[in-house]
Amino acid sequence: MTDSESTSSSGADDAAPGTRLEARRVIAAPADRVFTVLCDPDGHVAIDSSGMLQSAEGSTVTASGDRFVVHMDRESLGDYDLGRYDVTVIITRFVPGEEIAWTIDGQIKPPIGHTYGYRLTQLGSGTADGGGGGGSAGDLDGPLTEVVSYYDWSDAHPKWRDSGILPVLDASALKATLGILERAVRRGYVRG
Asked: What global pTM score does this model have?
């Protein structure tokens, strides 16, 4: 298990400079198993490192345009007193086993317009830690997947993009979520 540095990426995937964060991690699991967690609304709740996602309702995602509801509580961030609220996750990119991305629609109008997503690259088989430790060799042998978590606000509505509230999370939150994602892939997670 290796984490690469959390990075602020300028211009990645046509994002405006300074409007995109990324974090990477190699996970000792096949890409399809990782992708399964990312397509499950309960998976989103299970891997959230911010503590804002409380529960979710909806079906497993299978295509762009799919939606599900997430029950939120922003108190964990301690920045804006929004109380408990719901957002609708709208899938904007869906490439099975390779990429999933979404935006949200909630009580804030106009919608913020930021995008969250994951890109997966199957690396083959080997040892995920590259010899650097971090687990028993038996735990790390097998299929490896590089997972990139990204947060992009280049297409955010100008009202929000220029307000100073973005980014909502920092790269360390993306990196932490990747660690929780690996645990969920390997050990499972609570559903419902």
From this structure: 0.84
